[in-house]
Amino acid sequence: MHNAWVALQNVLGIVASTLSMLFIWPQVIHVYHRNTVEGLSPTGALQGICGSTLWSVYGLSQGDVAVGGSNFLIVLAIALLARAMVKHGTLPASRLYVTVFAITAFAFVCVSISPGVTGFIAFVVGASSVLPQTFTSAKSDDLSGVSLPTYVLLFFTAVAWSAYGVIVKDALVVLPNVVVIPCAIFIGAKIIRTRKANVSTLVDVA
């Protein structure tokens, strides 16, 4: 029984880590394929860069290649989204560059002083990084630039991490997903609703 429990823990850890690295990429593909960032939150992108940069530096400082590497890939993906936002004029380039420089410098200074504090800040910033996109989605009637597959994957990522956190009895793994799961459901539902409304409008016009 113990071996089966450990095997389940390992499988969930692998699944959750893999989904964490993959969930954002459909959004990148969506933005560059459709050439639109309509409905995306610039603040959410910047906060995502901050949270994942902190996690990446923290992970590397602890010798945890999985945490450091996976979050570096997320930073890269969100940076590509931010670049598209700059191109479309929804995010000032200066704001992006200052944010990237400031959070990188802060992360390295902070981790050299206290890795524990760095991890806690990464936890707070990362856990709440879905909120700006949730607020933007709630206010917007056009989410054509937002990827539905990304938020479906985010939902399953959060569920996997929650299950993993319960098994290893780590509240810090579970708690962020109490925020992420309902936000992912809300954003996904709003994307579906706005697209149905837009299709109905096009039919009425035709």
Structure report:
The protein starts with a helix and ends with a helix. The protein has helices at residues 2-22, 25-34, 42-61, 65-88, 93-113, 115-127, 131-139, 148-168, 171-205. By secondary structure, it is mainly α. Helix 2 packs parallel to helix 4.
Terminal CA distance reads 62 Å
Shape label: globular
Into which percent range does the helicity of residues fall?
over 70%
Structure annotation, total helices: 9
Regions with little confidence, pLDDT below 50 for 5+ residues: 202-206
Question: Structural class of the helices, strands and pairings?
Answer: mainly alpha
Strand content: under 5%
Q: How would a crystallographer describe the biggest sheet?
A: none
Average the pLDDT over all residues and give the rounded result.
Answer: 88
Topology order in helix (H) and strand (E) letters: HHHHHHHHH
Q: Summed up, what is this model?
A:
Helices cover 84% and strands 0% of the residues. With 206 residues, it is mostly helical. Helix 3 (42-61) packs antiparallel against helix 6 (115-127), helix 5 (93-113) packs antiparallel against helix 6 and helix 8 (148-168) packs antiparallel against helix 9.
